Amino acid sequence: CAHFGAVCFGTDIDIRVLHGKGAKDIYSNFEQYSLPRPELVRSDNSRFHHHFRTLPEGFFQAIVTDPPYGIRAGARQSGSRSGQAKPVSDEQRSLHIPQTKPYPVVDVMFDLLDMAARALCLQGRLVYILPCGYDFEEAIHLPRHPCLRKVASCEQSLTRKLARRMVVMEKTEPYDQAKRDEYRDRSYLPVQEPAELPYSDLRDKLKKPRGGKRDSVLSSAGKRLLNTVPAHRKKAKADK
Questions:
Q1: Mean pLDDT across 46-62
Q2: What's the start-to-end Cα distance of the chain, in Å?
Q3: CA angle 155, 161, 164 (to 5 degrees)
Q4: Among 3-17, 163-177, 186-200, the least confident range
Q5: How confident is the model at residue 95 (pLDDT cuts 50, 70, 90)?
Q6: How far apart are alpha carbons 40 and 78 in whole angstroms?
Q7: Cα-atom radius of gyration of the chain, to the nearest Å?
């Protein structure tokens, strides 16, 4: 996007990703290609309205993202498993790593589309990657939002069990905050249960066939998806 003149604005829930490691960070990637530096903010789509209270509708012309789906390291959202947040002193805030808890894929998708419907300008576009099984039926399983229309959906095969789709959506209607609950109700067809969605519980589906036994013939690409854990997460586990 920056190559074509866009002013880039990046977010991640993990502050360590934004800080980088040593001399390598997000800024160094842009500098390598002589591109303008992006603006970076630690943000969580599940709490978008708290992060950007004054962000006007139509702030972004495009959103390009690869949301977490739990294939390598499960999706996370801000919050405590116990439901009780611990206070953070002012002197610790700059280096504080907020608590997180599991983030169901159904909520990941609704929050992404709802955030895009709120933040995009009219005719602005959302582009995202959606890993899924081959039982995916676009008319039934593709997440939807009343303010967005599908422009394109292309599938790429990855393994015997796993594919991914690049989905492009365009904002066609103004966002109405008072209708957020209605938007959620209309984001999936009512006949579906979360576990039935082809992109739900992907890690378990890749590891176990319907008979319940571990799949011993998973392709090398599938094994890489399952076994590759980002370096910062490995370090976090070691620290524990």
A1: 75
A2: 38
A3: 25
A4: 186-200
A5: low
A6: 18
A7: 19
For 73, phi then psi, to 5°, come to -115, 130
Region 157-171: what's the mean pLDDT?
89
CA dist., res. 50 & res. 183, Å (int): 19
Sign of the torsion angle spanned by Cα atoms 90, 92, 98, 99? negative
Burial profile 9-21: b = 16 or more Cβ within 10 angstroms, e = fewer? eebebbebbbeee
How far apart are alpha carbons 188 and 160 in whole angstroms?
Answer: 26
Q: Taking 60 as the threshold, does the pLDDT of residue 234 lie above it?
A: no
- Residue 192 has which token pair? 């579906």
| Both tokens assigned to 147 | 């303010």
Determine the Cα–Cα distance for residues 28 and 226; give it in Å rounded to an integer: 28
Would you state the pLDDT for residue 62?
Answer: 94
CA 86 to chain centre: 26
Q: Is 153 a residue whose pLDDT tops 90?
A: yes
Query: What is d(CA 232, CA 77) in angstroms, rounded to the nearest whole number?
Result: 17
